[in-house]
Design a protein that fits this description.
Length: 155
């Protein structure tokens, strides 16, 4: 079994390519009753770490304030031999600094809209982000354990 895991493990460069090619991450936090809370968010890679912004009063943020343990999944592929992904277990850092929230939000919006740069979005992008900064927090996932797979390596 371990041999198959080793055979499909992605290199750092392959993992970076996976993260660059995808936009959404599934994030699991822990509800007060111990059950999982799962949500999908747009993300960016910031200093090598998955980061996203979300509403400060959201359930996931309330969960992460109480218990910073988090799991995240980025994956793609439809057919079994196309499946590739990265799973992260770690700790969520909640960012409340407005400048950092603005930076994360600007990067997320740029990716979501497939713009060349945030500046290319002009006033529209700037206004959209600025209206959200006071309502949102940034979240940065610090990994304790990372697993990667690329099933195309099996063929």
């Amino acid at each position: 079994m371990a041999g198959n895991r080793d055979a499909v493990r992605m290199s750092d460069a392959e993992t970076a390519a996976l993260l660059a090619a995808n936009l959404k991450v599934q994030v699991a936090s822990i509800n007060a009753d111990g059950s999982p809370h799962l949500s999908t968010l747009f993300y960016v890679v910031r200093d090598g770490l998955i980061a996203f912004w979300t509403y400060g009063k959201s359930q996931k943020v309330r969960n992460l304030e109480r218990d910073p343990r988090v799991s995240a999944l980025v994956e793609d592929g439809l057919d079994y031999f196309e499946l590739r992904g990265m799973s992260v277990n770690g700790r969520a850092e909640i960012v409340r600094d407005a400048d950092t929230i603005r930076q994360i939000g600007s990067a997320v919006v740029t990716r979501m809209l497939a713009a060349e740069s945030f500046e290319a979005l002009g006033d529209f992008g700037r206004d959209r982000v600025e209206k959200q900064v006071a309502k949102r927090v940034g979240v940065v996932i610090h990994p304790d354990k990372v697993a990667t797979w690329d099933h195309s390596k099996l063929v």
